[in-house]
């Protein structure tokens, strides 16, 4: 196979998308046109695929999808949020471990650390865990006053 021609699977790998997505969104809609055919396989020019990739990256950088949370991480986050809402502070590691049904509080600490890495909760400089602060959005934003004297 020529070095400048790619199969659908190779093009999908270069675009960081599944072959089905590439076919549905780019080939079917004629944003990526086949250059030639070898048997039943369509081949695409490498330059066309790279041009499409740079166009997609300019629109939105390609990032790997975050892994879904595990069942234990969801439980830990639920109990953490529950304790925060009811008591106004984070639970101790022992309280969290007890609520999750484990004996070792270090296991709860590892769960909290994994939630910090995900960005779900934060840990301040003193080591205290707290929910991630979201910027508050004003329901009725006021336009800026054009007259500085007011």
Can you offer a commentary on this structure?
The chain is mainly alpha-helical. It folds into two domains: 5-59; 71-131, Arc Repressor Mutant, subunit A. Helices cover 47% and strands 11% of the residues. The protein has helices at residues 8-15, 19-27, 46-59, 71-87, 93-100, 105-118, and strands spanning 5-6, 36-38, 41-45, 121-123, 129-131. Strands 1-3-2 form a three-stranded antiparallel sheet. A two-stranded antiparallel sheet has the order 4-5. It is elongated and about 65 Å long.
In short:
This protein has six helices and five strands, in the order βααββααααββ. It is mainly alpha-helical and 150 residues long. The chain has two domains: 55 residues; 61 residues, Arc Repressor Mutant, subunit A (Orthogonal Bundle).
What are its keywords?
150 residues, mainly alpha, Arc Repressor Mutant, subunit A, 3-stranded antiparallel beta sheet, two-stranded antiparallel ribbon, 6 helices, 5 strands
């Amino acid at each position: 196979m020529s070095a400048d021609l790619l199969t659908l699977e190779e093009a999908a790998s270069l675009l960081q998308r599944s072959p089905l997505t590439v076919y549905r969104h780019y080939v079917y809609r004629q944003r990526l046109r086949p250059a030639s055919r070898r048997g039943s396989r369509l081949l695409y020019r490498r330059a066309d695929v790279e041009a499409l990739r740079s166009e997609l990256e300019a629109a939105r950088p390609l990032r790997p999808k975050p892994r879904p949370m595990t069942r234990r991480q969801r439980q830990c986050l639920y109990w953490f949020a529950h304790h925060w809402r009811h008591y106004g502070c984070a639970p101790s590691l022992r309280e969290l471990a007890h609520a999750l049904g484990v004996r070792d509080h270090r296991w709860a600490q590892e769960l909290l650390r994994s939630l910090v890495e995900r960005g779900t909760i934060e840990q301040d400089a003193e080591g205290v865990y707290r929910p991630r602060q979201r910027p508050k959005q004003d329901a009725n934003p006021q336009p800026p006053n054009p007259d500085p004297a007011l």
